Amino acid sequence: MDLFTEVYEKTRGLLQTPQLHADWADIEAALKGLVQPGGPSVSKAAALDNLRKRLREAGKKGSVASVAEASEICRASVTTKPGFQDRAALIKQMKHFYLTMKKGNQSIWVVDQPQSYGEWDYALFNGKPAVDLPPLLLA
To answer: Could you list the pLDDT tens digit for every one of the 139 residues in the chain?
Structure first.
């Protein structure tokens, strides 16, 4: 994956059918509303805030917030089922996706993923065993 367009389309594809843990159904449905064929829906941008809030709340349950958030992403991505790498990448990617400005019919969206990744989340997580995900998710 070289372009965000490819990442966006992969995200759209994953959101077509429920895949995350059942208690993430509300977040998943909201993300599906956000990620539309013609681009992200400004009216659904709150889905990203809700996702980040859910992860922050999970972070408060652990002694180290980033470790607890990584653990929650792994749990939500159901690491016991095939394809968990893509589900974890979806959550991590959306965590770093922001609506920064809306003016008239124009909106500016920013992806602010960790610089240390060097590639898109889907490519980085691809093929990794479940035990290798938490350290990657700490960034």
So the answer is: 668 899 999 999 999 999 999 999 999 999 999 999 999 999 999 999 999 999 999 988 887 888 999 999 999 999 999 999 999 999 999 999 999 999 988 999 999 988 888 899 999 999 999 999 999 998 7
Total-model pTM: 0.93
Q: Sign of torsion, CA 63 69 71 76?
A: positive
Contact 49, 40 (CB under 8 A): no
CA dist 5 and 55 (Å) reads 25
